[in-house]
Amino acid sequence: MSRTHSRLTTPVVIIGSLILLVVSFVISLMMGPVTVPLSDLASSPVVTEIRAPRIIIAALVGAALAVSGAIMQTVFHNPLADPGIVGVSSGAAVAAVLAIVTGASFFGEWTIPFAAFIGAIITVAVVYLIASSRAMDGRGADPATLVLVGLAITAFLGAVISAATANAPQDSELRSVTFWLNGDLVSRTWDHVGVSVIPIIVGLILAVGASRDLNLLLLGESTAQTSGLNVGRARIFLLALAALLTATAVAVSGTITFVGLVVPHLIRIVIGADHRALLPAAAILGATFVIVADTVARMLFSPIVLQTGVVVAFIGSPIFLYLLLTVRKRRGLGL
Predict the structure, then answer these.
(1) pTM (predicted TM-score)
(2) What kind of fold does domain 3-331 have according to CATH?
(3) What is the pLDDT of residues 215-260, one digit of tens each?
(4) 3-state SS track over the chain
(5) In this predicted model, what pLDDT tens digit does every residue of 62-112 receive, in sequence order?
(6) Which of 77, 117, 141, 289 could form a disulfide with 145 if both were Cys (CB 3.0 to 4.6 A apart)?
């Protein structure tokens, strides 16, 4: 792709993605068991009290997971890195589940998001240490290794969740745990928007601000260091940022996988790997992706409602399989 073509394509993609986001947002507000005309959106209680907070949460979660995935793929030098696949989402979820089951409330409404953040931080640290130990040449662990690490971590954390749910004192807590495991946006309220909007918006701004560091990491560790980047410090900051975005998303939506894998890849195919354009475009397309998936979940088999995470998995899993097979073929990997 020529440099001129890239300059022309990038604004077209971003503007087109913004238009798609607005259209999907409005259509999602209108659609449901009760169809609300466009002229009544601002005055309908169904929209203002039920659909609007749910759709805003969908947009925030999609943007957070997409940008987090893009960051992790660059830091790990791994095209298959994703918060859900490498176990970071599960780490956030298990900490949130433990907070629910134990009835912890040391930070009030921020207790569960804080617990999810700590869980995500610990998990991403473990993944980073394993990836570093497996690739001392600075290229990152191979995709197959990272996927297997993620499977192992997810299995272990699943055992922790099973033990926690087996000892949950109330049935209501079991229902909450089920929500965390499957990913859904049912009963999202303005309180959930209030808890998540600041951490996610701040995290997205910081991520875009770190675009130069991410671009340097793409060039390799030695080149980045020669350019004046403190690679170790940059990696820690960027992974903490990815953990913050993932944890906040998980805190209000449960575990939704594949968004951080699929969306950055689609953006890279069209406009390349420059994070100055990649991250904003990924945030917009990620928001649109989850909004559309949530709308499909509500409408496909109405009145039966699918979980949002299930619809995302239906779309993302075949793409993940294609990417895994493509990477294996290109690098000659074996599982």
Answers:
(1) 0.85
(2) ABC transporter involved in vitamin B12 uptake, BtuC (1.10.3470)
(3) 999 888 788 888 888 888 898 899 889 988 998 898 888 888 889 9
(4) CCHHHHHHHHHHHHHHHHHHHHHHHHHHHHCCCCCCCHHHCCCCHHHHHHHHHHHHHHHHHHHHHHHHHHHHHHHCCCCCCCCCCCCHHHHHHHHHHHHHHHCCCCCHHHHHHHHHHHHHHHHHHHHHHHHHHHCCCCCCCCHHHHHHHHHHHHHHHHHHHHHHHHCCCCHHHHHHHHHHHHCCCCCCCHHHHHHHHHHHHHHHHHHHHCHHHHHHHHCCHHHHHHCCCCHHHHHHHHHHHHHHHHHHHHHHHCCCCCHHHHHHHHHHHHHCCCHHHHHHHHHHHHHHHHHHHHHHHHHCECCECCCHHHHHHHHHHHHHHHHHHHHHHHHCCCC
(5) 999 999 999 999 988 877 788 887 788 888 888 888 887 887 777 777 787
(6) 141
Residue found by looking up tokens 């996988």 in the block: 257
Return the exposure string of 218-245: e unless at least 16 CB atoms fall within 10 Å of the residue's CB, then b. eeebeebeeeebebeebbeebbbbbbbb
Distances in whole angstroms, Cα of residue 316 to Cα of each of 71, 259, 309, 319, 322: 18, 7, 10, 5, 10
CA 43 from chain centre, in angstroms, equals 32
